[in-house]
Amino acid sequence: MDIILASTSPYRRALLQRLQLPFSCVAPPVAEARVPGEAPAAMAGRLALAKAESVARLHPEALVIGSDQVAALGDRVLGKPGGHEAARAQLQACSGRELQFHTGVALACAAQNLWQFHVEPFRVFFRSLDSAGIDAYLRREQPYDCAGSFKWEGLGIALFTRLQGDDPTSLEGLPLVSLVRLLEAAGVDVLAA
Questions:
Q1: Residues catalogued as catalytic
Q2: 3 with 179: CB under 8 angstroms?
């Protein structure tokens, strides 16, 4: 059975490659907008499933993986900053605080009427950061395409006092521990592939 990643994210593609399964990538035609009053975890789950469903309808025989990540500072959702000033503002707001990540992963197959998803929580606790440290970090790593304005798998690890969660790959955008469980429930044994 073909496996499709409903994403064009290079981070998600690199994560899925760790499972050593053959797959292709298809961009999902889904707008990533928050519904008014929607909780961050609900948003991550809804968007992950919407991405998987939209591609599964176009490729009904394939197993389609969708994922979405929402970073929340309290009730405020932090998107991808896109540039230095927005990233600086995000990191200043996170300084000395806890940032919660909700990473949704979904598996869909239209031919099998399969529509599953899971939302994996993960928390990062920021050190107190000063403006000079924030600017130095941003100049070196330029995480402008990352929610929360950091790459924990790189120099961003120096921004934290601790991390808390069951699946660190969820911080990168695709919770592999949960995905393996979803794939096994759908009949794909990752270790036997």
A1: 68
A2: no
